[in-house]
Amino acid sequence: MAEPIKNRYDFVFFCDVKNGNPNGDPDAGNLPRIDPETSRGIISDVCIKRKIRNYVDLVKGADINDPDVSEGELGYKIYVQEGAVLNERNNKAYVHYDLKPTAKKLPKKVEDQRRVTQFMCDNFYDIRTFGAVMTTGVNCGQVRGPVQLCFGESVEPVLPLEMSITRMAATEAKEDKDNKTMGRKQYIPYGLYRIEGFISASLAERTGFCQADLDLLLEALMNMFESDRSAARGLMTSRLLVLFKHESKLGNAPADRLFKTVTVARAQGSEGEARSFDDYAITVDEEAVPQGVSVKMFEYIPPSA
Predict the structure, then answer these.
(1) What is the pLDDT of residue 180?
(2) Going by DSSP bridges, is the β-strand pair 262-266/280-284 parallel, antiparallel, or unpaired?
(3) 119 neighbors 97 (Cβ within 8 angstroms)
(4) Helix pair 211-223, 45-60: axis angle to 10 deg
(5) Average pLDDT per run of 10 along the chain, which is 305 residues long?
(6) pLDDT at 145
(7) Which of 4, 7, 13, 25 is nearest to 301 (CA)?
(8) DSSP, residue by residue, 15-36
């Protein structure tokens, strides 16, 4: 039986995009998300979580119909997937314990309430990691996950652009061969994004988030773009992960104080608009890291699969 993590962690993650759309806004014609006041690019937390889920699903390959794990063991199914029917996933907990669900209500016995919620944490990696609201028709409770992310923000303003594209082929034979379909493609020339996150040991005790889960999370962050390529997203790359480990469960310093030790500046000789990661220099002032906190930096983590 894996033990939940005993230490609090905070992290700063850097990724960049070149000639792509890292996170389109459907309310703005799918243009890259930006802060309208500063023009800095934005990547939502749910966008990053989606890519982590996809990577874990790819590496672990746990199908929803695979056998359920025993209590105390950890599975790697993914709860939030495209086309998933969440109530059907919730119902698996009731079937496992031979319980009959009542619409939108948890079981009457407190022990049964705990068992169905823990079943979901044990079997689904993303619930164990990010938490989930499972209070729909088949109620499995609500879980606050130990891993939380802030919005990603570009270190400098970005310039959202659009270009026209054409399709040379016709959809049907009766179409005029000279009638070429027009479309639009949204992108930014370049942007380096900074994402800050938190990992709570206290909440990990409730969900069962363990060291193996943490290692998989870090691996996913550093590899999630490599298996998620698309023409729309251009060249996206994980660049650097700065991980702060606290000696205690509740932490030895405020996260904001740790994040301030990680700074980004233009590299020597870089002028004009940034167009590559080489235009920046990321530094960590390790001497300013408070006592009781250690720091480790990752430029690459090999895939485990």
Answers:
(1) 65
(2) antiparallel
(3) yes
(4) 110
(5) 93 98 94 97 98 97 93 93 94 96 94 97 98 95 98 97 84 67 89 98 97 98 95 96 98 98 97 96 98 98 89
(6) 98
(7) 13
(8) EEEEEE-SSEEGGGTTEEPB-T
Q: Which of 11, 5, 1, 12 is nearest to 202 (CA)?
A: 5
Give the tokens for residue 70. Answer: 């025993």
Closest CA to 188 of 36, 41, 15, 3: 41
Tell me the C-alpha distance between 197 and 174, whole Å.
54
* H or E element at residue 107: none
- The burial of 65, by beta-carbon neighbours within 10 Å (0-12 exposed, 13-18 middle, 19 or more buried), is given as exposed
Question: Are 28 and 42 contacting, i.e. CB atoms less than 8 angstroms apart?
Answer: no
Tokens 């996170």 correspond to 23
CA atoms within 13 Å, Cβ hemisphere of 69? 18
Residue 293: what residue type?
Answer: V
Q: Which two tokens stand for residue 288?
A: 């300013």
Cα–Cα distance between 151 and 153 in angstroms, integer? 6
Report pTM. 0.95
